[in-house]
Amino acid sequence: MAEMTASPLDAKDDGPRRAPNPSRFGWLRVLKKNRKAQAGFIIFMGFILVAVLAPEIARYSPSNTNFPPLQPPSAQHWFGTTGLGQDVYSQFIWGTRSSLIVGFGATLISTLLAVAIGMYPAYWGGWLDRVMATFTNIFLVIPGLPLMIVAAAYVHHSNTLTMMVIIGLTGWAGRARVLRSQTLSLARREFVWAARLTGASDWRVLVHEILPNMLSLFMASLLYGILGAILAEAGLEFLGLGNLSGISWGSLLYWANNGGAVLDGAWWWLLPGGLGIAVFGTSLALMNFGLDEVTNPRLRQTSLASKDRLSRAWRALKGESPQ
Amino acid sequence: MTENNSAILRIGHVSVVYETEAGLAPAVNDVSLELEPGRILGLVGESGCGKSTLAQAIMGLLPPNASLVEGQITVQGRDLYTMSEPAMRAFRWKNVSMVFQSALVTLNPVIPVGKQFEEIFTVHQPAMSRAEVRRRIEELLVLVRIHPQHLRNFSHELSGGMRQRVAIAMAIALDPALIIMDEPTTALDAVVQQEILDEIRRIQEIKRFAVVFISHDLRLVSYISSEIAVMYAGKIVEYGPAQRFLSEARHHPYTQGLLDSIPHLEGERFTIHSVPGSPPDLVHLVSGCAFHPRCAAAHEACLAAAPQLKGVVDSGQIACFDIERKQKEEAHG
Amino acid sequence: MDKTKELLRGDNLVVQFRQTQGFRRTLICPVNEISLAVAANEILGIVGESGSGKTTLGRALAGMTSIVRGSLWLKGQNVSRLSRKELRKYWSQVQMIFQDVYNSLNPIYTVEQQLSFPIQRHATPTQSVREELENLLQITGLTPTAAVRARLPHELSGGQRQRVAIVRALAARPDLLIADEPVSMLDVSLRADILQLLARLRNDLGLAIVYITHDLPSAVYIADRILVMYGGCLVETIRADALIRESRHPYTERLLAAARFENPGSSPFSGGGSANSSVLLTSYRGCPYAPRCPIAAQICSTTRPSLIRMGRDHSAACHALSGSHQAQSG
Question: How is chain B split among helix, strand and coil, in percent rounded to 5?
């Protein structure tokens, strides 16, 4: 027999009682309940809006070089201009769009890989799992950035798609391992076996029984995946290994750095790219903290019963109820 | 229960209340008990009846959302709840100790068993020399029939029965006058369970400590105990010498339900029944006798007021209006 | 046993696991050359302690663990080695319920959501899923059905959860239900109802049940025949109503004594009471019970005894019963 909990209120066999379900779509309740998650979500949606509406809200073409160079912020150029005479505000808006596209696209690729290499074999078990786990571990010990640099240098003219693929292909291993270990522990639970015994296909068991039980972990992995991909993209662009004809937060930083923004004191040129990455990353982290607090009960605040208060409440209760 | 000065454990009108999201839950509700030295008190009931909470209250180990709101508990005449935190800690292992259902709770998985034994002595009896501690530990192990070679083992290298023996040895290490045993054999196989029960009885006869033995299995409890208290919804509904529960005595309907739910090997083959209905909702306790929704003998009186424990003919005490009435009828007729 | 009524038969079943202890890899054998048969509409009890291999045997019978040697037959068809697809067909005839009622239901789905897929999959065209669900909830005593349907697992008591698991198993309309310790996680006072339910399902639905447990009295109570397992081996098979009087194997005797809280006396040092895992090793050749057996002789630790027929539906594996044994101690 398993542990019997000591307190009668956690006691497992003491009849039905209604309480909030800890696992069911916890990540949706997070938004209702958690301040951090709300703040993160609002910032996140703000960036999404900017990316979607980029053609509408950018004031000029980002590649237009017809403005006076190195102008500080003004009414015409809200974020000033670059050393080549481009509008930084417009570059930032368009950069947001392409950074997010690369970030989401790469995350999609790494998620598919993580599910296919981490989750599915873990459920299937046997030699397939052993091979895939070894493969994942090999990939994990290869340092990510150098690998990306090599890959990016190998592809001479990278565009948005190749950037996504390079980042996606190098970023799945850590997430695959997390998904694998969770799948392994869930696949051993009796309800998964019971589902198989009812005749459910492997695909149905995975999608209908296992995946919903690890949604919060999956979401967390997704959020960190996006953050990692955005950072990787910025890193590659900053090193000049990205799509130099494109505009993103990383390339904004690259040109600012190469154009001597620091020497010229052109902070307005340097700042937007870095801030974009930092604030967007913060929004992802905030959502993740919120998710953690709601789904992990240990982080929740518990109220300590004060003896006096409970005694009074108890006496009041006894006075009211017929004894 | 009669006033008695020799009692080692005295529980007087104790209530323990939990604060839950749903509201206040009285897990222990006006319970009074006394335990003489060298006796074994069995505490029986379904999960959620308050037996484990009572044990925690005796140890002064209630969880943070629970509180002893009424009554007094004294062990060897001393009230744990008036002591300072360090005094309480010193008192705990030395005067009253505990054996849990799973020894994995008490045993640290990354420290060898022997080291954990030594810690008990270094904390509570720092004056003892290392050699003395060694000798004492080996004595204890021989007492629970564990070969001292196992001192070097980690807890996971021992079988469930051996772990529980080690836990018992640790609990008696400082010769406490009282040991609380919370479902100590529930996780074990039948044969091992019976061996551990015998072990407890044998050691108890040597050391003469008192035991509060908690279990959901009335048959098991009546085997090991000298007295038994049956709990339901935080109250004691029946109390008496253990023989009562092995014989055809008159029982509280709930006790009778527990007895009828266990298959026997001996005697006539009878149909077993579970106690009908579902366990009580402590937050929304019904008026009157808490058992009346599940009781076949319930009548109006049971809905109006809660029955008190009253003596019955064969030295037991039962809290039931139906039995009171039957006793009265017999007395008159 | 009547051959025509035979539902499931296993011949010399062997299941082995690899085990890593520190740096040593060993091969253990939790199911060691076990032969058994389950008749239609029979309740077969398999009794043993933890480490006896009873759960592994149950899982092997349910097709959840692969059999290394030996053969398994369902209604005359060889089902020893099934592909994933064939297993799904097998599971429409053989179902299982589990010990851990807290893990056997998916925590995020309501009772209705848990049950509609299996019912839908196995329903006959004339029946609506709703009717069948209602019917099964009634049969298993999950009333009021309307309220139970909308409950999530954590809102149910342990007994109710086990009933939901039983409904899920019944949805497949199986011929055989393997129940692995179905009540051992429940309060003693709640076990009776689940046992009664299983007995009733056998009578009303014509189900055969393999009841796996460590609790001998409950097996004697519910089963027709009992297999006693120890250390991966079958040590005795006997009719349940004859077990108390006629059982002969020392381990069965020990189980009976434990159920009566009798102690036949024990050694100064306990081996912990439960099966020493070394008797499960494939390299061990003796009787698995020898290290604990009060009447063990020289031969017991070197040669494995085979099952000897003691009477109708009764056989036991013990050297003391075959005459090849010279008792050294009483």
Answer: 40, 20, 40
Using CA atoms, how far apart are residues B71 and B82, in angstroms rounded to an integer? 13
Q: Which residues of B264-293 are buried (b: 16+ CB within 10 A; e: fewer)?
A: beeeeeeebebbeebbbbbeebbebbbbbb
Q: Give the distance between the most distant pair of CA atoms in chain B.
A: 71
Distances in Å between the alpha carbon of A75 and those of A63, A83, B66? 19, 18, 63
Contact C261 B271 (CB under 8 A): no
- Selection from A294, A211, A252, A241 nearest residue A99 by Cα: A252
Structure tokens at A99: 């950074």
Rounded Cα gap, residues A24 and C59, in angstroms: 30
Q: What is the DSSP letter of A25?
A: T
**ipTM rounded to 2 decimals:** 0.87
Q: Does residue A70 fall inside a structural domain? A: no
- Kindly state whether residue A67 falls inside one of the protein's structural domains: no
- Three-state SS for B313? coil
Total domain count, chain A: 1
Contact between C76 and C13 under an 8 Å Cβ cutoff? The reply is no
A168 part of a folded domain: yes
Q: Which residue of A has its CA nearest to B307?
A: A323
Read off the DSSP letter of residue A76: S
Which residue numbers of C have CB closer than 8 Å to B's CBs? 49-50, 157, 159, 187-193, 195-196, 214-218, 220-221, 244, 254-263, 266-274
Where would I find the H helices in chain C? Answer: 54-61, 84-90, 111-122, 129-139, 145-149, 158-170, 188-205, 216-222, 240-246, 250-259, 319-322
> Chain B: residue nearest A312 by CA?
B69
* % of chain B residues with pLDDT over 70: 97
User: Which of A27-31, A124-128, A281-285 has the least mean pLDDT?
Assistant: A27-31
Q: What is the CATH number of the domain that holds A279?
A: 1.10.3720.10
Q: Is C232 left (phi over 0), alpha (psi -120 to 50) or beta?
A: left
Q: Report pLDDT for B267.
A: 65
| Selected residue of A13, A28, A203 to mutate for chain C interface (largest C Cβ count, 10 A) | A13
Q: Which domain holds residue A282?
A: 25-62+76-301
Q: Could you tell me if B240 and B226 are in contact, meaning their C-beta atoms sit under 8 angstroms apart?
A: no
Burial per residue of A254-283, b for 16 or more beta-carbon CB atoms within 10 angstroms, e otherwise: bbbeebebeeeebebbbbbbeebbeebbeb
The CA radius of gyration of chain B, in Å to the nearest whole number, is 21
For residue A138, being part of any structural domain is answered with: yes
For the stretch B258-289, pLDDT in tens is: 998 888 877 666 788 888 887 888 888 888 99
Residue C187: list chain A partners with CB under 8 A: 13
The whole-angstrom distance between C198's CA and the closest CA on chain B is 13
pTM of the shown model: 0.85
- Segment C216-229, tens digit of pLDDT: 999 999 999 999 99
